[in-house]
Write a structure and sequence with these properties.
The protein is of the alpha/beta class. The protein has helices at 3-9, 32-40, 75-94, 116-129, 149-158, 172-177, 184-196, 215-227, 259-275, 292-299, 339-349, 361-376, 381-387, 399-408, 428-432; strands at residues 47-54, 56-57, 69-70, 100-108, 131-142, 162-168, 201-208, 232-237, 279-281, 285-287, 303-305, 308-310, 316-320, 325-328, 331-335, 353-358, 378-380, 412-414, 417-419. Helix 3 (75-94) runs parallel beside helix 4 and helix 3 packs across helix 11.
Protein backbone atom coordinates (compact mmCIF):
# COMPACT_ATOMS: atom_id res chain seq x y z
CA UNK A 1 0.00 0.00 0.00
CA UNK A 2 1.35 3.42 -0.94
CA UNK A 3 2.68 5.53 1.97
CA UNK A 4 0.33 8.39 1.14
CA UNK A 5 -2.68 6.07 1.51
CA UNK A 6 -1.43 4.85 4.86
CA UNK A 7 -1.09 8.45 6.00
CA UNK A 8 -4.57 9.32 4.73
CA UNK A 9 -6.56 6.39 6.12
CA UNK A 10 -4.68 5.39 9.24
CA UNK A 11 -6.71 7.55 11.61
CA UNK A 12 -10.12 6.68 10.14
CA UNK A 13 -12.23 4.52 12.46
CA UNK A 14 -14.75 2.22 10.81
CA UNK A 15 -16.74 -0.86 11.91
CA UNK A 16 -15.58 -4.36 11.07
CA UNK A 17 -19.01 -4.83 9.48
CA UNK A 18 -19.77 -8.19 11.00
CA UNK A 19 -23.22 -6.60 11.24
CA UNK A 20 -25.00 -3.59 9.84
CA UNK A 21 -25.80 -1.43 11.65
CA UNK A 22 -22.85 -2.02 13.99
CA UNK A 23 -23.70 -2.84 17.61
CA UNK A 24 -23.00 0.67 19.02
CA UNK A 25 -26.17 1.74 17.23
CA UNK A 26 -28.41 -0.79 18.97
CA UNK A 27 -30.96 0.72 21.39
CA UNK A 28 -33.15 -0.40 24.27
CA UNK A 29 -36.21 -0.08 22.03
CA UNK A 30 -35.76 -3.80 21.37
CA UNK A 31 -36.74 -5.68 24.52
CA UNK A 32 -37.25 -9.26 25.68
CA UNK A 33 -40.89 -8.93 24.62
CA UNK A 34 -39.75 -7.89 21.15
CA UNK A 35 -37.53 -10.95 21.00
CA UNK A 36 -40.42 -13.19 22.06
CA UNK A 37 -42.56 -11.83 19.23
CA UNK A 38 -39.80 -12.31 16.67
CA UNK A 39 -39.17 -15.89 17.78
CA UNK A 40 -42.86 -16.78 17.65
CA UNK A 41 -43.06 -15.39 14.11
CA UNK A 42 -40.17 -17.55 12.84
CA UNK A 43 -40.74 -19.49 9.64
CA UNK A 44 -40.84 -23.23 10.47
CA UNK A 45 -38.80 -23.83 7.31
CA UNK A 46 -35.98 -21.62 8.56
CA UNK A 47 -32.39 -22.71 8.87
CA UNK A 48 -30.90 -21.84 12.25
CA UNK A 49 -27.47 -21.08 13.60
CA UNK A 50 -26.72 -21.11 17.32
CA UNK A 51 -24.03 -19.09 19.07
CA UNK A 52 -23.19 -19.72 22.73
CA UNK A 53 -20.94 -17.26 24.53
CA UNK A 54 -18.81 -18.70 27.34
CA UNK A 55 -17.21 -15.63 28.98
CA UNK A 56 -14.50 -17.22 31.14
CA UNK A 57 -10.71 -17.31 30.95
CA UNK A 58 -7.96 -18.51 33.26
CA UNK A 59 -5.97 -15.30 32.75
CA UNK A 60 -6.40 -12.05 30.84
CA UNK A 61 -4.51 -11.54 27.58
CA UNK A 62 -3.76 -7.83 27.44
CA UNK A 63 -4.61 -7.45 23.73
CA UNK A 64 -8.06 -9.05 24.17
CA UNK A 65 -11.14 -7.23 22.92
CA UNK A 66 -13.64 -9.91 23.95
CA UNK A 67 -16.17 -9.83 26.78
CA UNK A 68 -14.67 -12.26 29.26
CA UNK A 69 -14.01 -12.75 32.97
CA UNK A 70 -11.05 -14.35 34.75
CA UNK A 71 -12.15 -17.16 37.09
CA UNK A 72 -10.14 -19.03 39.71
CA UNK A 73 -12.65 -21.81 40.52
CA UNK A 74 -15.64 -23.52 38.94
CA UNK A 75 -18.55 -22.15 40.98
CA UNK A 76 -19.21 -19.13 38.71
CA UNK A 77 -19.06 -21.38 35.66
CA UNK A 78 -21.65 -23.80 37.04
CA UNK A 79 -23.97 -20.90 37.91
CA UNK A 80 -23.57 -19.58 34.38
CA UNK A 81 -24.27 -22.98 32.81
CA UNK A 82 -27.49 -23.19 34.81
CA UNK A 83 -28.58 -19.80 33.47
CA UNK A 84 -27.59 -20.79 29.96
CA UNK A 85 -29.75 -23.90 30.27
CA UNK A 86 -32.71 -21.74 31.28
CA UNK A 87 -32.16 -19.42 28.32
CA UNK A 88 -31.92 -22.36 25.91
CA UNK A 89 -35.16 -23.79 27.27
CA UNK A 90 -36.94 -20.43 27.00
CA UNK A 91 -35.89 -19.70 23.42
CA UNK A 92 -36.57 -23.24 22.21
CA UNK A 93 -40.05 -23.08 23.77
CA UNK A 94 -40.85 -19.87 21.88
CA UNK A 95 -39.85 -21.17 18.45
CA UNK A 96 -42.35 -22.99 16.25
CA UNK A 97 -41.47 -26.59 15.42
CA UNK A 98 -39.54 -27.16 12.23
CA UNK A 99 -36.38 -24.99 12.03
CA UNK A 100 -33.20 -27.03 11.58
CA UNK A 101 -29.83 -26.03 13.04
CA UNK A 102 -27.04 -26.01 10.46
CA UNK A 103 -24.27 -24.31 12.44
CA UNK A 104 -23.33 -24.18 16.13
CA UNK A 105 -20.51 -21.99 17.41
CA UNK A 106 -19.09 -21.89 20.95
CA UNK A 107 -17.23 -18.62 21.50
CA UNK A 108 -15.61 -16.84 24.38
CA UNK A 109 -13.70 -16.33 26.44
CA UNK A 110 -12.40 -19.86 26.53
CA UNK A 111 -15.24 -22.37 25.97
CA UNK A 112 -12.93 -25.31 26.67
CA UNK A 113 -12.32 -23.97 30.18
CA UNK A 114 -15.72 -25.40 31.15
CA UNK A 115 -15.84 -28.48 33.38
CA UNK A 116 -15.90 -31.45 31.02
CA UNK A 117 -19.12 -32.85 32.46
CA UNK A 118 -20.75 -29.42 32.16
CA UNK A 119 -19.76 -29.15 28.51
CA UNK A 120 -21.08 -32.63 27.75
CA UNK A 121 -24.38 -31.80 29.47
CA UNK A 122 -24.72 -28.52 27.56
CA UNK A 123 -24.20 -30.26 24.22
CA UNK A 124 -26.73 -32.94 25.15
CA UNK A 125 -29.27 -30.26 26.03
CA UNK A 126 -28.70 -28.49 22.72
CA UNK A 127 -29.50 -31.70 20.86
CA UNK A 128 -32.60 -32.16 23.01
CA UNK A 129 -33.94 -28.63 22.62
CA UNK A 130 -33.13 -28.09 18.93
CA UNK A 131 -33.18 -30.13 15.75
CA UNK A 132 -29.49 -30.22 14.84
CA UNK A 133 -28.77 -31.51 11.35
CA UNK A 134 -26.61 -34.63 11.16
CA UNK A 135 -24.15 -32.74 8.95
CA UNK A 136 -24.19 -29.51 10.96
CA UNK A 137 -20.90 -27.70 11.50
CA UNK A 138 -20.22 -27.50 15.23
CA UNK A 139 -17.30 -25.20 15.96
CA UNK A 140 -15.51 -24.15 19.13
CA UNK A 141 -12.83 -21.63 20.06
CA UNK A 142 -9.85 -23.04 21.96
CA UNK A 143 -6.99 -21.69 24.04
CA UNK A 144 -4.25 -24.35 23.75
CA UNK A 145 -2.81 -23.26 27.10
CA UNK A 146 -5.76 -24.69 29.03
CA UNK A 147 -6.83 -27.57 26.79
CA UNK A 148 -6.84 -30.94 28.60
CA UNK A 149 -6.90 -34.49 27.18
CA UNK A 150 -10.26 -35.02 28.91
CA UNK A 151 -11.77 -32.02 27.11
CA UNK A 152 -10.31 -33.14 23.77
CA UNK A 153 -11.99 -36.52 24.26
CA UNK A 154 -15.28 -34.78 25.07
CA UNK A 155 -15.03 -32.58 21.98
CA UNK A 156 -14.67 -35.63 19.80
CA UNK A 157 -17.47 -37.50 21.56
CA UNK A 158 -20.08 -34.72 21.25
CA UNK A 159 -19.45 -34.14 17.55
CA UNK A 160 -17.31 -31.01 17.31
CA UNK A 161 -16.29 -30.66 13.66
CA UNK A 162 -14.12 -27.52 13.73
CA UNK A 163 -11.72 -26.01 16.27
CA UNK A 164 -10.39 -22.48 16.12
CA UNK A 165 -7.16 -22.07 18.06
CA UNK A 166 -5.89 -18.70 19.23
CA UNK A 167 -2.22 -18.26 18.36
CA UNK A 168 -1.70 -14.51 17.77
CA UNK A 169 2.12 -14.80 17.62
CA UNK A 170 4.72 -17.48 18.27
CA UNK A 171 7.36 -14.85 19.12
CA UNK A 172 8.31 -15.24 22.80
CA UNK A 173 9.00 -11.52 23.23
CA UNK A 174 5.60 -10.61 21.79
CA UNK A 175 3.89 -13.24 23.94
CA UNK A 176 5.47 -11.74 27.06
CA UNK A 177 4.29 -8.28 26.04
CA UNK A 178 0.66 -9.44 25.70
CA UNK A 179 0.62 -11.74 28.74
CA UNK A 180 0.08 -14.91 26.70
CA UNK A 181 2.92 -17.41 26.94
CA UNK A 182 2.16 -20.15 24.42
CA UNK A 183 5.15 -21.95 22.88
CA UNK A 184 4.77 -23.46 19.42
CA UNK A 185 4.99 -26.98 20.84
CA UNK A 186 1.92 -26.34 22.99
CA UNK A 187 -0.17 -25.40 19.95
CA UNK A 188 1.29 -28.27 17.94
CA UNK A 189 0.33 -30.74 20.67
CA UNK A 190 -3.23 -29.36 20.79
CA UNK A 191 -3.64 -29.72 17.02
CA UNK A 192 -2.31 -33.29 17.13
CA UNK A 193 -4.73 -34.26 19.91
CA UNK A 194 -7.72 -32.66 18.20
CA UNK A 195 -7.06 -34.46 14.94
CA UNK A 196 -6.62 -37.75 16.78
CA UNK A 197 -10.06 -37.17 18.33
CA UNK A 198 -11.57 -36.86 14.85
CA UNK A 199 -11.77 -33.08 14.66
CA UNK A 200 -10.37 -32.42 11.22
CA UNK A 201 -11.36 -28.78 10.71
CA UNK A 202 -8.56 -26.69 12.24
CA UNK A 203 -8.41 -22.88 12.18
CA UNK A 204 -5.53 -20.78 13.50
CA UNK A 205 -5.96 -17.11 14.44
CA UNK A 206 -2.98 -14.76 14.02
CA UNK A 207 -2.65 -11.06 14.82
CA UNK A 208 -0.39 -8.30 13.47
CA UNK A 209 0.24 -4.92 15.05
CA UNK A 210 1.02 -6.34 18.50
CA UNK A 211 3.65 -4.84 20.83
CA UNK A 212 7.24 -5.67 19.94
CA UNK A 213 6.12 -7.38 16.75
CA UNK A 214 8.29 -7.09 13.63
CA UNK A 215 7.88 -8.09 10.01
CA UNK A 216 10.41 -10.88 10.56
CA UNK A 217 8.60 -12.27 13.61
CA UNK A 218 5.26 -12.10 11.76
CA UNK A 219 6.65 -14.12 8.86
CA UNK A 220 8.19 -16.65 11.22
CA UNK A 221 4.84 -17.04 12.99
CA UNK A 222 3.19 -17.75 9.62
CA UNK A 223 5.89 -20.29 8.77
CA UNK A 224 5.28 -22.15 12.03
CA UNK A 225 1.51 -21.87 11.70
CA UNK A 226 1.33 -23.34 8.19
CA UNK A 227 3.63 -26.18 9.26
CA UNK A 228 0.63 -27.40 11.30
CA UNK A 229 -1.39 -27.63 8.07
CA UNK A 230 -4.52 -25.82 9.29
CA UNK A 231 -7.51 -25.73 6.96
CA UNK A 232 -8.00 -22.02 7.58
CA UNK A 233 -6.00 -19.08 8.86
CA UNK A 234 -7.14 -15.63 9.90
CA UNK A 235 -4.92 -12.57 10.17
CA UNK A 236 -6.43 -9.76 12.23
CA UNK A 237 -5.06 -6.36 13.09
CA UNK A 238 -4.72 -5.57 16.79
CA UNK A 239 -7.13 -2.79 17.80
CA UNK A 240 -5.67 -0.81 20.70
CA UNK A 241 -8.67 0.74 22.49
CA UNK A 242 -7.79 1.02 26.21
CA UNK A 243 -10.73 3.39 26.76
CA UNK A 244 -13.05 0.43 26.14
CA UNK A 245 -10.86 -2.41 27.39
CA UNK A 246 -8.99 -1.24 30.48
CA UNK A 247 -6.54 -4.16 30.51
CA UNK A 248 -5.15 -2.97 27.16
CA UNK A 249 -3.65 -0.05 29.06
CA UNK A 250 -1.05 -2.54 30.34
CA UNK A 251 0.44 -2.55 26.85
CA UNK A 252 3.20 0.01 26.41
CA UNK A 253 2.11 2.11 23.43
CA UNK A 254 5.76 2.86 22.68
CA UNK A 255 6.19 -0.79 21.72
CA UNK A 256 3.31 -0.79 19.22
CA UNK A 257 4.18 -0.63 15.50
CA UNK A 258 3.13 2.51 13.61
CA UNK A 259 0.75 2.44 10.65
CA UNK A 260 3.48 1.90 8.05
CA UNK A 261 4.91 -1.00 10.03
CA UNK A 262 1.44 -2.50 10.52
CA UNK A 263 0.86 -2.47 6.77
CA UNK A 264 4.28 -4.01 6.17
CA UNK A 265 3.51 -6.77 8.68
CA UNK A 266 0.14 -7.50 7.10
CA UNK A 267 1.55 -7.62 3.58
CA UNK A 268 4.43 -9.89 4.61
CA UNK A 269 2.08 -12.27 6.41
CA UNK A 270 -0.34 -12.37 3.48
CA UNK A 271 2.44 -13.11 1.01
CA UNK A 272 3.82 -15.89 3.24
CA UNK A 273 0.39 -17.52 3.60
CA UNK A 274 -0.40 -17.30 -0.12
CA UNK A 275 3.03 -18.70 -0.99
CA UNK A 276 2.17 -21.71 1.19
CA UNK A 277 -0.75 -22.68 -1.07
CA UNK A 278 -3.66 -20.99 0.71
CA UNK A 279 -6.18 -18.76 -1.07
CA UNK A 280 -7.47 -15.43 0.16
CA UNK A 281 -10.97 -15.36 1.63
CA UNK A 282 -12.48 -11.93 2.05
CA UNK A 283 -10.46 -9.30 3.85
CA UNK A 284 -8.52 -11.27 6.46
CA UNK A 285 -9.11 -15.03 6.08
CA UNK A 286 -7.20 -17.70 4.14
CA UNK A 287 -8.05 -21.31 3.40
CA UNK A 288 -6.94 -24.38 1.53
CA UNK A 289 -8.39 -24.30 -2.00
CA UNK A 290 -10.56 -27.37 -1.35
CA UNK A 291 -11.99 -26.06 1.94
CA UNK A 292 -15.72 -25.32 2.03
CA UNK A 293 -15.15 -21.63 2.70
CA UNK A 294 -12.82 -21.33 -0.31
CA UNK A 295 -15.42 -23.01 -2.50
CA UNK A 296 -18.07 -20.61 -1.17
CA UNK A 297 -15.85 -17.63 -1.98
CA UNK A 298 -15.30 -18.97 -5.50
CA UNK A 299 -19.03 -19.46 -6.03
CA UNK A 300 -19.94 -16.06 -4.60
CA UNK A 301 -21.88 -17.53 -1.64
CA UNK A 302 -19.48 -16.44 1.11
CA UNK A 303 -21.25 -14.73 4.04
CA UNK A 304 -20.17 -12.56 6.95
CA UNK A 305 -21.55 -12.54 10.49
CA UNK A 306 -20.36 -12.02 14.07
CA UNK A 307 -17.93 -14.94 13.73
CA UNK A 308 -16.35 -13.33 10.65
CA UNK A 309 -16.38 -14.97 7.21
CA UNK A 310 -18.51 -18.07 7.02
CA UNK A 311 -20.38 -20.52 4.82
CA UNK A 312 -23.38 -20.07 7.13
CA UNK A 313 -26.42 -18.90 5.17
CA UNK A 314 -28.97 -19.52 7.94
CA UNK A 315 -32.02 -17.28 8.20
CA UNK A 316 -31.60 -16.79 11.94
CA UNK A 317 -28.68 -16.66 14.35
CA UNK A 318 -29.87 -17.33 17.88
CA UNK A 319 -27.35 -16.22 20.49
CA UNK A 320 -27.11 -17.29 24.12
CA UNK A 321 -25.13 -16.00 27.07
CA UNK A 322 -23.96 -12.67 28.43
CA UNK A 323 -23.19 -10.10 25.68
CA UNK A 324 -24.27 -12.50 22.91
CA UNK A 325 -25.83 -10.94 19.80
CA UNK A 326 -28.34 -12.71 17.57
CA UNK A 327 -29.96 -11.85 14.27
CA UNK A 328 -33.46 -12.58 13.03
CA UNK A 329 -35.20 -11.42 9.84
CA UNK A 330 -36.63 -8.47 11.78
CA UNK A 331 -33.32 -7.28 13.21
CA UNK A 332 -30.74 -7.78 15.97
CA UNK A 333 -31.08 -8.75 19.63
CA UNK A 334 -28.27 -8.30 22.16
CA UNK A 335 -28.07 -9.74 25.65
CA UNK A 336 -27.00 -7.92 28.79
CA UNK A 337 -23.23 -7.56 28.85
CA UNK A 338 -22.45 -7.71 32.59
CA UNK A 339 -22.37 -11.25 33.94
CA UNK A 340 -24.20 -10.65 37.26
CA UNK A 341 -26.97 -8.72 35.50
CA UNK A 342 -27.31 -11.46 32.89
CA UNK A 343 -27.74 -14.12 35.58
CA UNK A 344 -30.33 -12.01 37.39
CA UNK A 345 -32.32 -11.35 34.21
CA UNK A 346 -32.39 -15.02 33.22
CA UNK A 347 -33.53 -16.02 36.69
CA UNK A 348 -36.36 -13.48 36.55
CA UNK A 349 -37.51 -13.77 32.96
CA UNK A 350 -35.78 -16.58 31.07
CA UNK A 351 -34.39 -14.03 28.61
CA UNK A 352 -31.72 -11.34 29.01
CA UNK A 353 -32.35 -9.07 26.01
CA UNK A 354 -30.98 -5.60 26.77
CA UNK A 355 -31.01 -3.88 23.39
CA UNK A 356 -31.17 -4.47 19.68
CA UNK A 357 -32.16 -2.96 16.40
CA UNK A 358 -35.29 -3.27 14.27
CA UNK A 359 -34.16 -3.10 10.64
CA UNK A 360 -35.94 -1.02 8.04
CA UNK A 361 -36.03 -1.90 4.34
CA UNK A 362 -33.25 0.65 3.79
CA UNK A 363 -31.14 -0.98 6.52
CA UNK A 364 -31.55 -4.41 4.91
CA UNK A 365 -30.63 -3.00 1.51
CA UNK A 366 -27.50 -1.33 2.83
CA UNK A 367 -26.57 -4.43 4.85
CA UNK A 368 -26.73 -6.47 1.63
CA UNK A 369 -24.49 -3.98 -0.20
CA UNK A 370 -21.98 -3.89 2.65
CA UNK A 371 -21.86 -7.68 2.95
CA UNK A 372 -21.27 -8.01 -0.81
CA UNK A 373 -18.37 -5.58 -0.61
CA UNK A 374 -16.87 -7.30 2.43
CA UNK A 375 -17.20 -10.77 0.88
CA UNK A 376 -16.78 -10.23 -2.88
CA UNK A 377 -15.28 -6.72 -3.19
CA UNK A 378 -17.69 -6.18 -6.06
CA UNK A 379 -21.35 -5.15 -5.99
CA UNK A 380 -23.84 -4.06 -8.62
CA UNK A 381 -25.87 -1.45 -6.77
CA UNK A 382 -28.69 -1.49 -9.32
CA UNK A 383 -29.17 -5.26 -9.01
CA UNK A 384 -29.20 -5.16 -5.22
CA UNK A 385 -31.60 -2.22 -5.15
CA UNK A 386 -33.93 -3.94 -7.63
CA UNK A 387 -34.13 -6.97 -5.33
CA UNK A 388 -35.51 -4.60 -2.68
CA UNK A 389 -37.81 -2.84 -5.17
CA UNK A 390 -35.87 0.38 -4.61
CA UNK A 391 -34.36 2.74 -7.21
CA UNK A 392 -30.58 2.46 -7.11
CA UNK A 393 -30.27 6.23 -6.87
CA UNK A 394 -31.43 5.88 -3.27
CA UNK A 395 -28.18 4.17 -2.28
CA UNK A 396 -25.68 5.69 -4.69
CA UNK A 397 -22.86 7.16 -2.60
CA UNK A 398 -21.75 10.76 -2.84
CA UNK A 399 -20.05 11.36 -6.20
CA UNK A 400 -17.24 13.33 -4.59
CA UNK A 401 -16.52 10.51 -2.12
CA UNK A 402 -16.42 7.96 -4.94
CA UNK A 403 -14.11 10.18 -6.97
CA UNK A 404 -11.83 10.52 -3.96
CA UNK A 405 -11.64 6.73 -3.49
CA UNK A 406 -11.10 6.22 -7.21
CA UNK A 407 -8.28 8.75 -7.19
CA UNK A 408 -6.65 6.78 -4.38
CA UNK A 409 -7.11 3.50 -6.28
CA UNK A 410 -9.24 2.16 -3.42
CA UNK A 411 -12.46 1.67 -5.42
CA UNK A 412 -13.94 2.52 -8.78
CA UNK A 413 -17.48 2.80 -10.07
CA UNK A 414 -18.37 1.44 -13.52
CA UNK A 415 -21.98 2.35 -14.17
CA UNK A 416 -23.67 1.02 -11.05
CA UNK A 417 -20.99 -1.58 -10.32
CA UNK A 418 -18.63 -0.73 -7.46
CA UNK A 419 -15.34 -2.65 -7.36
CA UNK A 420 -12.55 -2.76 -4.77
CA UNK A 421 -9.23 -3.79 -6.42
CA UNK A 422 -7.24 -6.61 -4.85
CA UNK A 423 -4.49 -4.24 -3.73
CA UNK A 424 -7.04 -2.19 -1.77
CA UNK A 425 -8.66 -5.08 0.12
CA UNK A 426 -7.26 -3.92 3.48
CA UNK A 427 -9.30 -0.73 3.02
CA UNK A 428 -12.60 -2.38 2.05
CA UNK A 429 -14.16 -1.26 5.34
CA UNK A 430 -13.58 2.34 4.28
CA UNK A 431 -15.48 1.65 1.06
CA UNK A 432 -18.31 -0.11 2.91
CA UNK A 433 -18.58 2.92 5.19
CA UNK A 434 -19.90 4.93 2.22
CA UNK A 435 -23.20 3.09 2.66
CA UNK A 436 -23.34 3.37 6.46
CA UNK A 437 -26.03 5.88 7.37
CA UNK A 438 -25.36 5.42 11.08
CA UNK A 439 -21.61 6.01 11.10
CA UNK A 440 -20.30 8.91 13.14
CA UNK A 441 -17.02 9.95 11.45
CA UNK A 442 -15.88 11.56 14.70
CA UNK A 443 -16.83 8.61 16.90
CA UNK A 444 -14.17 6.49 18.56
CA UNK A 445 -16.12 3.26 19.04
CA UNK A 446 -14.53 1.41 16.11
CA UNK A 447 -11.07 0.15 15.19
CA UNK A 448 -8.77 2.06 12.84
CA UNK A 449 -9.02 1.36 9.11
CA UNK A 450 -5.32 0.45 9.10
Amino acid sequence: MRPELVAKYRHQRVPRYTSYPASPHFTDAVTADTYRDWLAAADPRSALSLYLHLPFCKSMCWYCGCHTTVVRHEDPIWAYLAALSTELRTVAGLLPEGPVVRHVHFGGGTPTLLPVEGFRAMMAELRTRFCIASDAEIAIEIDPRTLTPEMVEALGDVGITRASLGVQSFDAEVQAAINRIQPFEMTQNAVTQLRAAGIQGINLDLIYGLPRQTVASCVETVRQAVSLKPDRLSIFGYAHMPNFKNHQARIDTETLPDADERVAQLRAMEMAVLASGYVRIGMDHFARPDDDIAIAAEKGTLRRNFQGYTTDAADMLLAFGASAIGKLPQGYVANILALPAYLKAIEADGLATARGYRMSLDDKLRATVIEALMCRFDVDLAKVAAAFDTPHEAIMPDARAIADLAGDGVAHLSGTRLIVPDAARPLVRSVAALFDRHLDPEGGRHSKAI
